[in-house]
Amino acid sequence: MEQQIRDIMTSTVFTIKETQSIQEAGAVMSEHNIGSIPVVNNNGDMVGIITDRDITLRSTAQGEDAQTPISQVMTAQQVVQATPDMDVHEAAELMAQQQIRRLPVVENGQVIGMISLGDVAVQHQLTDDAEEALSSISTPSGPQK
C-alpha cells in the first residue's frame, strides 16, 4: 500500500520572510535546532529555502554582514519540494537523486510541512528506501569549478 507524505510529514514548520536577515535565520535555526527554513514572501508563498550551509558558504565565507537579506544567499531557483499526496517512496528517491536530506511539502504555493530522511527511516516498511537515499546523499560530489 502506498503511503503519502502527508501521513509522515512534520506539520509544524517554521518559515522566514525573504526580507529578513541571515542573522534572524540563524537565530531561528538555533532556537528550534533545525538546519533549513523555507523562505516565503509577504503572501506566504514559498520562494526559496535557506540552510545553515547557505549561511556559511554564501555569506560568512564571503564576508557578508549579518544583516544581509536572506534573499541574497538563499536557494531560490529550482527548490526541490514535495506535495502532500506524493508517495513516500517517490520522495525518498527524489532526496537520493538530489542529495538532500529535507523536503518542504508545498500545497498551492504554501509550505504545509517538511519531510526529512529521518521521517522516512523510522517507517519500518521504508527502511530500504531510507538506506538507499542516505547512501546516495552521502556520495561525495566533486568540487564545483
Automatic annotation (TrEMBL):
The reply to whether Coiled coil figures as a keyword in the UniProt entry is no
Q: Which Pfam families match?
A: CBS
Q: What is this protein called?
A: CBS domain-containing protein
Query: Which domain of life does the protein's organism represent?
Result: Bacteria
Q: Which PANTHER family does this entry report, sorted A to Z?
A: CBS DOMAIN-CONTAINING PROTEIN (PTHR43080:SF2), CBS DOMAIN-CONTAINING PROTEIN CBSX3, MITOCHONDRIAL (PTHR43080)
Identify the residues that the record assigns to the CBS domain, covering every copy: 9-66, 74-131
**Alphabetical list of CDD domains matching this protein:** CBS_pair_HRP1_like
Q: Which InterPro entries match?
A: CBS_dom, CBS_dom_sf, Diverse_CBS-Domain
In the UniProt record, does the keyword Coiled coil occur? Answer: no
Record keywords:
CBS domain
